[in-house]
Write a structure and sequence with these properties.
The chain is mostly helical. It has 2 domains: about 1-35, no CATH class; about 40-95, no CATH class. The chain is built from 4 helices and no strands. The chain has helices spanning about 15-35, 45-55, 60-75, 90-95. The longest helix is centred in the first third of the chain and has 22 residues, at about 15-35. The radius of gyration is 28 Å and the shape is rod-shaped.
Length: about 100
C-alpha cells in the first residue's frame, strides 16, 4: 500500500480523527478500574446488598461481625449449644450486622 507521501505501508489519518481516537482510548483506560469496583449502595437494602458488602469490603464486614459478637457476649448471649435457638446469639449477631440491634 502506498501512502500519500509516497512511502510504502503508510496511511495518513486526519489529525482531528487521531486526537479523537486518542482521547477515547485515554477515557476508556481511565474508567476501567471504576468498572471493576461495585457500588453496594446502588442495591436496595436486603440480601444482595449484604452480599455485595461481604464481597467488596471483607475487612469492614469482618470488623462489624466481630463487634456484633462482642456486643452479644457483653449482653449475656453465649455461643454454646443454645446459640442457634430463636432469640439466641446467632439471631442477635445477624440482626446486629444488618443494623437492627444497637
Amino acid at each position: 500500500m502506498v501512502g500519500l507521501d509516497g512511502q510504502h505501508g503508510m496511511i495518513q489519518v486526519p489529525r482531528s480523527l487521531t486526537m479523537t481516537m486518542l482521547a477515547a482510548l485515554v477515557a476508556l483506560s481511565a474508567s476501567a478500574p471504576l468498572a471493576v469496583a461495585e457500588d453496594c449502595r446502588a442495591f436496595p437494602p436486603g440480601p444482595d446488598r449484604r452480599a455485595c458488602v461481604r464481597r467488596e469490603h471483607p475487612e469492614q464486614f469482618q470488623a462489624k461481625l466481630e463487634h456484633c459478637k462482642q456486643l452479644a457476649s457483653e449482653r449475656g448471649f453465649t455461643g454454646g449449644a443454645g446459640s442457634n435457638r430463636p432469640g439466641g446469639m446467632k439471631d442477635f449477631v445477624q440482626a446486629c450486622v444488618q443494623g437492627r440491634q444497637r
